[in-house]
Amino acid sequence: MLKYVPRMTNIVLEEIPDRVTLAVEISNCQGSCVGCHSPFLKQDIGEELTADVVDSLIAANFGVNCFLLLGEGKDPAAVLAIAEHLRVRHPGIARAIYSGREAVEPELYEAFDYVKVGPYKAESGPLNERTTNQRLYYHREDITSRFWHKGADKQI
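-> structure tokens emitted (156 positions)
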């Protein structure tokens, strides 16, 4: 079973380039990022994320063109089932997932259009810094540099 936290579901514009993204926070996080912004997501909280819930979320958020799972939870089969449901039922909506792991199984790259990997490391910085350890892939192509704006890492 995959669980999400409804009150943390939001439309975001900066997680996936050129996409209006519905970001869905997944609980039962297996990560151990130092300085985690949401440590409570390690708990078994929230509601089950089913195909019907996905359909309702998309219907309630007109204009989104990407569905992002922020986390993997403890049920890999449920994650892949959600990706497949999105592919079949909502073909115009990109599928994205963030894993705090350094690397993920090939199945995730096949199931999702966008795959972000890497735990947050304060000393490396977030995705928009050139020193980041995190990577965002689009169909297995590393597109992390799209977050690096010219001159963004210069001191003012």
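Residues 129 and 155 are 13 Å apart (CA to CA).
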